[in-house]
């Protein structure tokens, strides 16, 4: 990735974070990391590429965007800030994320399809807690009734092989997009 592409990816990541913070309830650090994964994962399933330009790591609580995770909280500044609230009973302290006044979302960085994707992620997952989102990233949307092997699990999450990268090919394994691309490369989808 050249410098121009890197800057554009950083602008897109910043705008996705701002969009999520503007449109979701009660945003914690963990919830933000999960929503970023869901945005990129769903974009990869449709296009083969992440929307943010981020690469992802396998970590204990699910996939995390590498640059955001490794550089926290610097990675969200100057457009957002985090604040930690004390733990209650047996819980961990909660780290909340909020926008800094004046932070602006730039919809010009996104296609109509990408805007629809962002809106659908917020609609579907935006009111969920980080705990529920963690279960979804580990075992799929229907984790209670029909758990599936997610890209996080395939890349080593269940085997506790943490800090490994999840590649777009890990995200695509078994997806309709992968079947479509293989069909184009090797013949019709019916032959797969």
Automatic annotation (TrEMBL):
UniProt cross-references to InterPro entries, sorted A to Z: SocA_Panacea
Antitoxin SocA-like Panacea domain mapped to chain residues: 32-138
Top-rank taxon, per record: Bacteria
Designated name of the protein: Antitoxin SocA-like Panacea domain-containing protein
Protein's organism: Candidatus Kapaibacterium thiocyanatum
